[in-house]
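Practice problem: predict the structure.
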Amino acid sequence: MAELKVRTRETGALAVMPPGGLPVVTTPTGGSVDVVTGVNAPGFNPLDLLYASLAACMVLSARIAATRLGVAANLGEVRADVRGEKAEGDVSRVASLRWSTPHPSRRCAPMHLLPQGEKVKPRPCPQESGGSHLSSAPL
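Answer:
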């Protein structure tokens, strides 16, 4: 099995919103993202940033796993499409998350953002475009 070299770096995010303006998020490493709030505005809104973080984490995790298994050279392109649904009646709450991968043979597993102690009931995973959609819903 291949060994991974672990290097650390400062992480975090700082969001600054000037009076009458939109937030700009920066990282300690020099990254910057202008946040948009308009429905038709191009760019990332706060929920897009949440989904982008999860999608990036998933594809990077696939590469890490392939490296550990010694099959990274055969990995090819990895994609993760993460989407969510807002809770009804509450614009600030995500009701559920779903994602797809190009591996329809993967088992479906629920992932849901719920208040502590609330239970989830897995939904069936439909096959669309060769991907697995993973989601869950409140009981």
